[in-house]
Amino acid sequence: MSHEGIRIVSKEEEQARNKEPHQLPREAVTPLKVRVLLTEGKGLEIDWTDGHKSAWGFKWLRDACPCATCNDVREAAGLKPGQSAPAPVQLLPMYTPPAKPKSVTPIGRYALQFNWEDGHTAGIYSWDYLRRNCQCAECTALDKN
Ligand SMILES: [Zn+2]
Ligand SMILES: [Zn+2]
Description:
By secondary structure, this protein is of the alpha+beta class. Helices cover about 25% and strands about 25% of the residues. It has helices at about 10-20, 60-65, 70-75, 125-130, 135-145; strands at about 30-35, 45-50, 55, 100-105, 110-115, 125. The structure holds zinc ion (2 copies).
């Protein structure tokens, strides 16, 4: 059978490829250990197979929700994942507790889904997305260059 070299690329695939020009090595997106510090209310920690360690606070994760709706809101406001929109000015400022998930569900072997206390559950946080948005000092310094 001859191979024509024709490959149908879905629209999503094409978009993902344009957005993410280089693919991360497998070891960089394969978690060795995943810790969700739910009781402490702190955040998520991942030790990767390539030896890198990442940590994200819950607030950051909530503001970085990768679902289509949150993405649109961020894009419209010119915010990066993890940046929160400025709070609306209120006459009587109300205390808003920091974002925290009620539960975290693994999605297959590639992602986590957060069930946020505010009822939002649409975001699927893939290992790839998390690694690309690693908040450690080293990665955020690279980001600024
Ligand atoms: Zn969302
Ligand atoms: Zn890092």
